[in-house]
Design a protein that fits this description.
With about 180 residues, this protein is mostly helical. It has a single domain, classed as Transferase(Phosphotransferase) domain 1 (Transferase(Phosphotransferase), domain 1, Orthogonal Bundle). Helix content is about 40%, strand content about 5%. The protein has seven helices and five strands. Helix 1 runs parallel beside helix 6 and helix 3 packs antiparallel against helix 6. The longest helix is centred in the N-terminal third of the chain and has 20 residues. It binds adenosine-5'-diphosphate (ADP) and magnesium ion. Adenosine-5'-diphosphate (ADP) binds next to loops.
């Protein structure tokens, strides 16, 4: 693979329209892996690099594994601040856990902080009401309201505590 000068922390000050196009790339990349039966388990900005061609590349398959759609796993792997609830609670999970991390990245893109910080305590994760925060936050920039609404929808979908519903409507959301 070629040298990639940026990861997705850097574009934090890019405009919302651009960020939305990056998010779509990440979702398409994760769907591509899932269709190949690969679960990544460590989707985070440090593991998404931007090449000189302007396209994002998912790297670091250290925690990834082959996984069938119907299989359920229990190992807790990943990074602090990103562990989805079922991993923290030592419950069985499926491919949809990768969408939790996408939700965290989208939240970061919109609000410039990580919703759960570095915490992977279930109490902290439940205490911060992401949906309420996202709903009530007022954005000044009306020009980008379409993209802001799209990213909000992705956050709702990805940070869903119900793993079976998580990410289910992503394909529809990112159609436009
Ligand atoms: N092709 C590349 N171009 C530029 N930087 C890279 C490249 N591959 C890896 N890196 C840098 O090295 C870091 C660690 O690589 P990674 O494969 O994620 O290993 P680790 O398991 O240590 O996290 C990445 O977060 C990135 O900053
Ligand atoms: Mg890494």
């Amino acid at each position: 693979m070629e040298y990639c000068p940026l990861n997705i922390i850097e574009p934090i000050n890019f405009n919302i329209k651009k960020k939305y196009s990056y998010i779509k790339q990440i979702i398409n990349g994760v769907n591509f892996l899932h269709n190949l039966g690969i679960i990544h388990r460590d989707i985070k900005p440090e593991n998404i690099l931007c090449g000189n061609d302007g396209n994002f590349k998912i790297i670091d398959f250290g925690f990834s594994d082959l996984f069938s759609t119907f299989e359920k796993k229990k190992e807790a792997l990943g990074s602090y601040g990103y562990f989805p609830p079922e991993m923290i609670l030592n419950k069985r999970y499926n491919l949809n856990i990768d969408f939790w991390n996408i939700g965290i990245i989208c939240f970061y893109f919109l609000f410039k902080f990580f919703p759960f910080g570095k915490s992977s305590e279930i109490g902290d994760i439940k205490q911060f009401d992401v949906n309420k925060f996202v709903k009530e936050y007022h954005f000044e920039n009306e020009k980008y309201s379409f993209f802001i609404e799209k990213i909000k929808e992705i956050i709702y979908s990805c940070l869903n505590f119900d793993i079976n519903q998580r990410g289910k409507d992503l394909k529809d959301i990112i159609k436009e």
